[in-house]
Every structure is written in structure tokens, then in C-alpha cells.
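Appendix B. One record, verbatim.
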Amino acid sequence: MGNKTKQTLIIAIVTLLITAGLCSFLFNEIRTQTLMIEEKVTILSENNAKEAAFNNLNKQVKDTELERTELAQVFIHDESESIKFLNEIEALAPTYGLTFKTEALEKSKDEGSEDEYIRMVFSYTGKKSAVLGFTEFIETIPYHSQVDQLSLKEITQGNFEGKISIRITMQPL
């Protein structure tokens, strides 16, 4: 083998090693960049999913605003509202032709939870149809409520007495 052939062989081997090293370096860079891009795509997908969930939640909040406002109205929010409600009931009873008495009005907490409620006990007397109508009205008041006790009894011919214990849930604003 001549000098020129050896020189060409050495140049070819060096060129091959440099090319292989460069290819290896570029392959590593491409792999690193691919991993970084995949990671960024994953983060972007997660962010897009979070943004979509946020937008859906925001839309739901806007779409249900009226319903939430209406729902808030079925709760008594403070004690002054309960007094106002009681005054309205006391004013309504005579329109039914009833004699009305408030026997109890107290704020309490439910034993099993932290829910607060106003407990009211009413007794009222009058004609049977008036007592039944007023009882139905109390049972269907437009508040989140529960009738704990109800008794209806005839006290004289045609006159009845009703006694009802009702709890109205309080929901502070």
C-alpha cells in the first residue's frame, strides 16, 4: 500500500469517524428535542383540558345564575328575615278567619350537621275549612322547610284547632 493510499484511507476513516460522531450528536439532539416537544405537547394538552373545563364551568355558572338566585330565595338568610316571615304569617291568619298564636320561635342547629334552621310553632283556631286551608298553606310555603309535627282536632262543633311545628332552613349569604 502506497503512501497516497494510506493517506486517503486515514482521511476516509477520520471523515467517517467525524461523520459518525456528528450523526450521533444530531441523533441525540433530535431525540432530546423530540422528548421536550412531547413534554410540551402533554403540558399544552393538559392546559387545554383545564381551560375547557374552566370555560364549561364558567358557562354553567352563567347559565344557572337565574336558578341559583331562585334557589337562594327558598332559604331564610338571617333572623330578621324569619321575623318578617312570622309577621306575614300572623297577618295572613285573620284573612283565613283564624285566631292565631305563635308558641315558639327559635334558632337551632341540626344535631347531625352544622345546618341552622328556625323552628316555629303555631296554633290556630277557626272553621274546619279555614284551618285545613291555612295548614296546607304552611305546608307549602316557598322556603326550604320541614313540618316536624302537625295536629288537627275538633274543639267544638265545626271549629277546629291546628298546631304545627315547622323548621325553615337558614342559609347565610
